[in-house]
Amino acid sequence: MTDPFLVSILLIAFLAFGGLSMGLSMICGSSVYLIMKGFDPSIASETLLQGLFNSYTLLAIPLFILAADIMNIGSLADRLLQFSQALVGRFKGGLGHVNVVSSLIFSGMSGSAVADAVGMGKIIINMMTKDGKYTASYAAAITAASATIGPIIPPSIPMVLYALVSDQSVGYLFAAGMAPGLLMGVVLMVMNAVIAHRRNFSVDEVVSLRDMPGVTFRAIPALLLPVILLGGIYGGVMTPTEAAAVAAFYALTISVVVYRSVRLGQFYETLLASARSTATVGILIAGALTFQYVVTRENVPDSLAAFLGQYELSRVGFLLAINALFLVLGCILESGAILLIIVPIFIPTAQSLGIDLVHFGVICVVNAMLGLITPPYGLLLFIVSTITKQPLARIVRDLVPFLFALVVALMIITFVPDFVLWLPRMLGYKG
């Protein structure tokens, strides 16, 4: 007799690789499973609605998406870029450093790698290639690599997704991402410096110290956003969901009232774009919630734990296996699918091995972000390739050193849990 679960998996894979969105593929595969098992197919709808309505945290996602889109149409990105250039543009390979620093700052506002690459990425790539100082493929490579930092430093949409499936605090997950995000920025800047000296990149235009106060002053309203968000969350003034609403309102107010850089027509288009992005994420979450019911019915987490138990994997062995698996899956699956479908299967095993789930969440999110720059799926690769009109092969060639640097950072994040958890513990986390 045909196994309904196997049929469900094969159908999801067939539909997804055939071009249907992963969310709809999971809904279709889960519905077929329920029918073959003789269950009422409406269970899928019930599970979906309960999962969505019982998670207040999910409201943060559309609000962070809206905030990021508003920042991209306003002049916040331009001012942050000018500030970053004044800060680190004077060093060899300066615009490469500017690229990384601007991603670090912008990630404290948007929580989205795609928003970083599309908004800040377009501007910095044009700056890097303007006078032929950097090749277009190199500019694309470092832009894609630095954009992966976006969802690690808080706020972070992928961290919200992980909180949904792991029942962990969004606030502590945000705090746990701070040090790893900064580490990723440092290793990228070190690699950029090494390449800059090896290729003898010229020193870029230097902003004089006399102009620094003016550049900083113009960027202050934009720089205040991460301070307001994180201060509000960790000060107990607002929840992460409320912080997302504040981020969207603040970005709109600054863009319209202070910088006066957003027209009504632009704002309308931004609302439409945010709604489309939210719908895409929403369908993915809906499909994952439905498929999660199937996985639970099949007792997959316990079966996996028993299977791994046969090999008596240590904590180190399990984490190495998880990193290897997620890096491979990142080549073929989108980050949201990894976090919502694959990660929940391994959470019980991680718990049984005594791995802290906040630490495990950071490992999972970092792996998922590296998947954005690994071919053939690599969403960020497609974005920067579209911006620069460069073939993927050429971009990947320049990306390899940065990917190596990020994997080194991932190893530190994985095997030095105190490095990840020291800030959450300072804020009251007991893990």
Detailed description of the structure:
It is a single chain. The protein has one domain. Helices cover 77% and strands 0% of the residues. It is built from 20 helices and no strands. Helix 2 runs parallel beside helix 13. The longest helix is centred in the middle third of the chain and has 34 residues. It starts with a helix and ends in a 5-residue tail after the last helix. The relative contact order is 0.15.
Present the secondary structure layout:
Layout: H1 4-17, H2 22-37, H3 42-53, H4 60-73, H5 76-88, H6 94-110, H7 113-129, H8 136-147, H9 157-166, H10 170-199, H11 212-234, H12 240-258, H13 264-297, H14 300-310, H15 315-329, H16 335-352, H17 357-370, H18 379-388, H19 392-415, H20 417-426
Briefly say what this structure is:
This protein is mostly helical and 431 residues long. The chain has helices at 4-17, 22-37, 42-53, 60-73, 76-88, 94-110, 113-129, 136-147, 157-166, 170-199, 212-234, 240-258, 264-297, 300-310, 315-329, 335-352, 357-370, 379-388, 392-415, 417-426.
Mean pLDDT, all residues: 81
| pLDDT < 50 runs, ≥5 residues | none
How many structurally independent domains? 1
- Structural classification: mainly alpha
Span between termini: 46 Å
Strand tally: 0
Helix count?
Answer: 20
Taking all Cα atoms into account, the compactness measure Rg is 22 Å
Range of helix content: over 70%
Give the strand content.
under 5%
